[in-house]
User: Fold M20/M25/M40 family metallo-hydrolase from Candidatus Paraluminiphilus aquimaris.
Amino acid sequence: MTSRGVVLRLIGCLVLVMSHASFSQDAAQIARAYHQAETARIVSDFRAFLSLPNVAANYADMQVNAEFIQRYIAKRGFSSKVISAGGAPYVIAERLGAEGAPSVLIYAHFDGQPVIPSQWSSPPFEPTLWSDNPLAAGAYMLPWEQDVFDPQWRVVARSAGDDKAPVIALMAAIDALVASGDMPDITIKLFLDGEEERGSPTLAGVLAEVASDVEADLLLFCDGPMHQSGRRQLVLGVRGSMTVDLTTYGPNRPLHSGHYGNWAANPSETLMRLLVSLKDQSGRITVKGYTDDVRPISAQEVAAVSAMPRVDALIKRDLGLSESEFAGERLENAIMRPAIVVRGLSGGGVGAEARNIIEPSADASLNLRLVPGQKPEAVLASLKAHFERMGMTVSAKEPALGTAREKHVKMVARPGGYRAFRTPIETPAVSQLKGILDRLGDQETLVTPTMGGSLPIYLFEDNLDAPIVILPVANHDNNQHGRDENLRLANLFSAIEMYAEVLAGLAQRPR
Amino acid sequence: MTSRGVVLRLIGCLVLVMSHASFSQDAAQIARAYHQAETARIVSDFRAFLSLPNVAANYADMQVNAEFIQRYIAKRGFSSKVISAGGAPYVIAERLGAEGAPSVLIYAHFDGQPVIPSQWSSPPFEPTLWSDNPLAAGAYMLPWEQDVFDPQWRVVARSAGDDKAPVIALMAAIDALVASGDMPDITIKLFLDGEEERGSPTLAGVLAEVASDVEADLLLFCDGPMHQSGRRQLVLGVRGSMTVDLTTYGPNRPLHSGHYGNWAANPSETLMRLLVSLKDQSGRITVKGYTDDVRPISAQEVAAVSAMPRVDALIKRDLGLSESEFAGERLENAIMRPAIVVRGLSGGGVGAEARNIIEPSADASLNLRLVPGQKPEAVLASLKAHFERMGMTVSAKEPALGTAREKHVKMVARPGGYRAFRTPIETPAVSQLKGILDRLGDQETLVTPTMGGSLPIYLFEDNLDAPIVILPVANHDNNQHGRDENLRLANLFSAIEMYAEVLAGLAQRPR
Assistant:
């Protein structure tokens, strides 16, 4: 290489470094200036998107959501298609950079959990603006027409926190960068899931169809809440999730609780005995074989958790709790263990519907959260064997006529259960992304080994080569899955800034 | 005494004996002929009475029922008044015999358990006619217009079995006897309760007001089902009953079951642990002190139970059960023990309403059935102490702000709980009544120490001198308290015959 060559390369590097630094700095500032100027429009777009009912079981509703997204992203230069593999629709899209530009695949989902409207402070698909979390004392509703939007306010609607914000925020980031004339050269691909809250039962089919189209240098999963400390975080894993429904049986017709009380088997009591037997007093799972396949936690993961701010005391106070299930265990460690959550329990009526009868059956719904190594089939088999050791007949069917109903338990795993996933901390993309986000400057980005929640990431792991990292944007107290789900406006705004920074940073990635 | 006097007395006795025998024979035959001729009219009256909604909490509805009864019994020569002591109305009535005639006080109730109409095969207050128990395979609905009513058919409506039949059947018996010209000389008093299914919370006040008016030679409680063998029975006792509602607490807002599952306390799981701890595997109550006051079962009671036909195997087969709670124990003994029945259980949703959240609270409703000796306050205190020994704070209130919600249990005993009652078998009225009913001839009348169900008999024991015996008329499979409650027509007809026989028999009672 000639000395002129060396000088030219040095200048080239210098320009690259300078442009890198100034460009990144610009991206955050550009995004901030943009969302401050366009707040009303961005919030209005978010509100319109949230107004579309999005329970995944209703395909017609999901189609309306998909078409809304297509129109919305087309304005930002995305080509897209809506596909389905027999389930709810998915939106697959891309906005191409120059030939050979770095690429990023962004995942989000646009369906939401089912709703029980009567429990909500306002109808779940008529978004409202609140001064605070509607479940907080003193929170009140505000009119939508505002000159200035306080970042502490909340937008309340199903999917406000989980997971309609990423589409709106990402498009605002692109709008900001395009408007500034500094749009980074990067290929952006979108994989928008219309049935995540049902466990994405047809995702495998969809991925099989589009895997080659969505391959990228990095897969960024945009879902889940930020750390409870309010800190930005990169999350490297998710728990797997399964739903198991149980039904126990008593007499084949309702019986008077006086005439038959402590003679006839009570299905509510049978159900409780079965469920209580799954854990010991401290919350440790006692089902033989259930945890056999669990992958050990690595030393780096232990170190990463230790480096995180402790939030347990704060969250407990906030939630009105004095102790965690496993006394003294910090949340970040608890979610690295498998969980069995009794999410639903129903036997006879309570309150005004209570009657003095012994019911023919009682029901429970379990949410099983799996950790890396656990296989859904093995977990289910261990549960079945556990109940059988307790003297029960376990089957996916109702008890047959003439059988011992009180010894029968119907156990049905709902379709769509899946295993966990965890990216090793030492993966290069992890430190690269942390570096990009740390440029935002206000705080160091946390690296969290896993979130407690679930995403069907294992399928992407099976089908794509891209390293996978999760970048959550929602406030931790977004009431996701429950009533009065919400997004704090500050989180919407910071998401716009993060996405701008990430697009700019990734565009600089050595190819 | 002269020989003429002796002869006259002998003739008198002979006439009395002869008239007694022939009169009794007549009463059953008269009643049978009458209800066979008047079936359509009697069934139609029953249907009209059952068409009146009668959930005791709705006083206006209960007033309509009371007025129906007043009109209905006035036609049979009863004077009546409707009174209340701040609760639902009661109907107090009498039909006087000659001065010094024997007297009987008949108790029945005309309210019913709350309904969940969606569970019923037909609307609970639109009576329907069925070929069999609607819960039986192959049962079908029939038109009301019939030339002949098969005694196996069922009238289906709330309170068909519990407890509107006695008023209709008793009036039919009186109609039959009056029409025959052989109406026995007896004073019949009625005490008709409009709030029994709520535990008759104001019965004490009503009794205090009317005790002297309703005093009689015998109090006949007309409620409850006949023996499962189908045999007529006199029942000498009832269990007491209390309702205790429990609420347990988790986080003060719904939490995502993934992000917080096996860290945040789950109120459903806390509730189950508390409830399961109340009994051992065999159903024996393990709450310290709970059974301390239980009155021992007498040798006569043991003997009476032993003399009864064993129905356990039959009932188990009928109900699809293979074993009773306390393995091998016969039903008649099980109901002499105190029962804790979890009648309602609710935490989160099941089925289509299940969501992946940890709920802020969970609820249960317990029906406690007490036996003689147990005092409601002592039972409640032992439950409270039991939960406290498990580390819980027990209070009738919600947890205060800032407290450990997961260690709080709200425990509320609903008003109207009451203690048990049992008439000793050796009471003369018991053998007298058994003698009268045995004249019906088809079968020997069973004498049952107690029923499993509850009636507020203890208040009558406290306020009246009359011996108290229960004479049930409903089929045992009447689905009382549950959906598709029903009365078998044969039971309505046999009730008419029994009442006629009892009125005739009691009229002969030595004063």
